[in-house]
Amino acid sequence: MCSSNLLECKKIRILLSSYIDDELDKEQTKMVRLHLTSCTDCNKEYHGLLKIRGIIRHLQEIQVDYDIPENIFKRIDAARRLPETLWFPVTIRVALVLAIIVNIGILSLFRNYKQEAPKFSAYKPIKVENIILEKEQNVIEVSFSSPAEDTIEKFIPPKVKNFEKPTYPESFCAKNIQGTVILNIGVSAGGKVENIKMAKSLSSEADSLALISANAMKFFPAKVGTLNVNSNIMVTFVFKVSFSY
Q: Are residues 195 and 242 in the same domain?
């Protein structure tokens, strides 16, 4: 059985909170919206997050009178100045001490609440991630390597800045697409993908998926000393399929 649906749901649920807060880019927003129209479980998770957000938004701050202990001790001091015959009986003294202790405890709880409450922002819901305890069977492994630049002194190769690993599509399972796609990417001095050359092809489907992923990559540009320069980096996509019976 192909497990790509589970992997896609896991990816979408990680993005749900950012989708609700409108923090995703256009491509990610479109991907999440399309998935929610076809997946009942993820749609249920999405509406659950919206409900939590609504509850948190309507939390009201509790106003606490922090002068309660001070007022109690003032009354005690005033009472001590009265003649002994007018002083409270022993039972009332005990009750008063207990009341002071209870009030101090309640005051401490309210103070802790007031300090912790801001952590639950009214405009950002709690992020809930669904934990899937299943082994990923159909995967795409991606690795990066830089060509040797021994002839250039003080050369620092480009590094990956932003990259979203592609998910093994369900449609690939029936065709048993597995193997390696290797791309040689030209990286500009600004860290953008300038051109892509196919060093090793696998199939039209796998090649297209690798090219789409590569075009969306961003890099920290290569340097010669402190100067940004154009460079090349090799990206290897390894498609793996595993069937369970």
A: yes
84, 119, 154: which is the final residue of a domain?
119
> Closest Cα partner for 13 from 46, 39, 38, 59?
46
Determine, yes or no, domain membership for 159.
yes
User: Do 224 and 197 belong to one domain?
Assistant: yes
Angstrom distance (rounded) from CA 151 to CA 8: 44
Nearest to 146 by CA among 157, 160, 156: 157
Which residue ranges of the chain lie beneath pLDDT 50?
1-4, 85, 113, 116-136, 245
Answer yes or no: do 216 and 114 share one domain.
Answer: no
Q: What is the pTM of this model?
A: 0.43
* Tens-digit pLDDT profile for residues 88-135: 566 666 677 777 777 776 766 656 545 544 443 333 343 333 333 334
Considering only CA atoms, give the Rg of the chain. Answer: 31
Q: Which amino acid is at 206?
A: A
Any domain includes 206: yes
Return phi, psi of residue 62, to 5°.
-90, 125
Q: Is residue 13 part of a domain?
A: no
Q: How many CA atoms lie within 13 A of 94 on its CB side?
A: 3
Residue 10 near residue 132, CB atoms below 8 Å:
yes
Task: Quickly count helices (H) and strands (E) in the chain.
Answer: 7, 9
- CATH number for the domain including 238? 3.30.2420.10
Q: 237: closest CA among 148, 136, 168?
A: 168
Q: What is the pLDDT of residue 214?
A: 92
Q: How do 179-187 and 222-224 pair as beta strands?
A: unpaired
How, if at all, do strands 222-224 and 231-240 pair? unpaired
Count of structural domains, the chain: 2
